[in-house]
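pls ignore typos typing on phone
NDP + seq
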Amino acid sequence: MPQNVCILGATGSIGENCLAVLNELASRFRVVSLAAHRNVGRLLESARAFGAAKICLADCSVAEKIDKQSLGDIELSYGQESLVELATDPEVDIVVNAMVGSVGLAPSVAALKAGKRLALANKESLVMAGAHLIRLAREKPGAEIIPVDSEHSALFQLIDLHEPRNALVKVIITASGGPFRGSDKARLEKVTFTESLNHPIWTMGPKITIDSASLANKGLEVIEAHFLFGLEYDNIEVLVHPQSIVHGMAIFHDGAVLAHMGIPDMRIPIQYALTYPERLQSSIRSPDLAAIGELTFESVDEKNFPCLALAYEAGRKGGLATAVFNAANEAAVELFSKGLIVFTQIPDIIEKTLAAVREGGEPSLEEIFQADSWARDFAVQLIA
Ligand code: NDP
Ligand code: MG
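k done
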């Protein structure tokens, strides 16, 4: 029996890669529903190509522009609530959350509550409400979170989650270093939005590409790893590895280090999140290490890329701080994209917003959503 898949964020970089994987695994999976923000043209094309019966646009304002005739048998719905409906559809087995930003949280919660496998690319949902998502995955029959983020997929494959944890000392998440590796503050103050979109290794959506340039992405990933694997922040390390062949490493108490390698291609972790615990054949080649020649590792330049240390600070503060880190970063990236701040103001805004947050606590989901919108307003007002 094929498994039924719903992709939220189907028109983005992860969404399109997911469809490419599903195209190769057509006998194992059936695409039943697809969602996007407002790119109806591409959404319809994919729905027709994969035979999806339902599509959803999160932005209701595009409704009037759609020619209903063009839909044929495809059912179209609108709005954030419809995303939740797709994620909880009894017909669906696997929800791929490939949306960008904090809007991903509500569908992640809904999918887990409905007992689905959540193939999670939307790291923002874990950063905002990791404790809630992990609890739901543990308690709801059938619910599970399988990471899509390449580093976390690597660690997920390296760490046996059922084994007693005392043998594992530490994990290492690698970072390419982004387009500005080696730059100093004077240079970073002048970089443009377009330059920041020029990632040396990965082709991704604009928001995560800016996050990769500022290292806020690595910060989000440290918090993501804390929740996914139940690790203390002291036991999660980041190393810059410009070749992006090693995605994650696990260090054990006998001195052994296991590393996960692969070419930087998101189809590998996406496929694993869909097929786990099986590892199916794919057309992707393994790295030609002799041709690559060198794998290098270096420490993060924390002075010039403060977003990573700020993420650790938010993680250690706990409570609402990680949601606030995420929201302040999302707001700052948007301001940067509009030319309203310079690149080096991204960490400044995060730092000032984070300073206004109390330590600790176990916030409810409602409090998390409130903190998210509070932090956005606070961040924007900082530059007003
Ligand atoms: P993209 O910007 O390429 O795609 C985002 C997708 O989300 C699009 O389908 C977009 O629809 C949809 N979307 C945007 N805003 C909303 C909204 N308000 N409501 C509903 N849908 C929305 O992003 P990526 O694919 O690069 O990233 C997606 C997620 O995966 C992020 O959380 C990112 O951090 C994570 N990730 C991405 C990696 C990558 O290689 N790209 C690697 C690891 C993690 P539309 O096209 O209509 O705007
Ligand atoms: Mg990653």
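DSSP finds 16 helices and eleven strands in the chain. The two ends are 56 Å apart (CA to CA). more later
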